[in-house]
Specification:
6% strand, single chain, mainly alpha
Length: 104
Amino acid sequence: MNVKDHVAGFADFIRKQGVVGVAVGFVLASAVAKMVTALVTDIINPLIGLLFVHTESLKDVALQIGNSKIMWGDFVSTTIDFLIIALVVYFAIKLLGIETEKKK
């Protein structure tokens, strides 16, 4: 088997397995995650942080117990980030019609 046959076989594998589609999906998912993180960090956290007089951001909200600091604001911020990304993924799958279950 020569090099040309290997290249053709590899190209056929990519076409059949959708490897390029998966790669594009990973790149787009990474970009969406960065955008959502920026939205939560730069816009949502400061707005929620306004509710707490002594902090600039939701991430800074903490419960001080002795020498320990429970950063519950950071946890809430990360949860908001996750929920927004989950909603984006859900609606993207619905919009593209790529549900895994076959409709009868």
